[in-house]
Amino acid sequence: MRLLLVEDDINLQQNLKITLEKYGYSVDVADNGEDGLFQATEYEYDAAIIDVGLPKIDGISLIKSVREQDIGYPVLILTARNNWQDKVSGLDSGADDYLTKPFHNEELLARLNALIRRAAGKASPIMTNGALSINTSSFEVSVNGEDISLSSSEYRLLEYLMLNQNQVKSKSALTEHIYDQDFDLDSNVIEVFIRRLRKKLDPQGDYNFIETHRGAGYRLRSLD
């Protein structure tokens, strides 16, 4: 999952980036609202975390501008302010949820996970597709109840495909949602990870979870 983090407190920004990357997210950062607005509208994200008190363009105005351009990925706002009016303003601007500073990273991760699931129409942290099951809270994957060990990159790829079942995703789209802006989009790394996933999830070829659409990309087909 690819995230945008707009936070002007550099220490907090870097700590959050490290934490989010530890849990498998790819994170682009900005430290002011002007740069954040450019990134928010220029690139595709699965979710954004935006501080309210930003320089150049405040967080509320940033979110309003994003929503006015019909960009609909979920937004979690961060605010150091405790009065309810600021929280209401954030939600009215188009944000989906908020956290008041200081907060525990575990709560941020849980809220972010829930926002991404809901945006994909998934209410439960456990997603199933036939014999395949993914727990997005514990990052556990199983097939027919047997645990499957995946690398963080393999898990991110599978989770993204699972959240977008029956949708064909190009290699470039998959790369953009799994890695940051500086990754080589011409790399064949997605092909390598797809081969590894097929070998780990379906070594006998019984399920054909992931289909190749030549010239278009890959699709995790629905088996439910």
Describe the structure.
The chain has 224 residues and is α/β, with parallel strands linked by helices. It folds into two domains: 2-119, 3-Layer(aba) Sandwich (Rossmann fold); 126-220, Arc Repressor Mutant, subunit A. Helix content is 40%, strand content 21%. It has helices spanning 10-22, 33-42, 59-68, 84-92, 105-119, 152-163, 171-178, 189-201; strands at 2-6, 26-30, 47-51, 75-79, 97-100, 126-129, 132-135, 140-143, 146-148, 210-213, 217-220. The protein is elongated.
Short description:
The protein is of the alpha/beta class.
Helix content: 40-55%
Mean pLDDT reading: 91
State the CATH architecture of the largest domain. Answer: 3-Layer(aba) Sandwich
User: CATH superfamily of the largest domain, called what?
Assistant: Response regulator
Shape: elongated
Q: Report strand order across the widest sheet.
A: 2-1-3-4-5
Number of helices: 8
Would you tell me which CATH topology of the largest domain applies?
Answer: Rossmann fold
Flag low-confidence runs.
none
Main sheet properties: 5 strands, parallel
**In the CATH hierarchy, what is the class of the largest domain?**
Alpha Beta
Count of individual domains: 2
Give the H and E element order.
EHEHEHEHEHEEEEHHHEE
Distance between the termini: 24 Å
Q: Which band does the percent of strand residues land in? A: 15-25%
How many strands appear in the DSSP assignment? 11
Radius of gyration from CA coordinates: 18 Å
Coarse structural class: alpha/beta
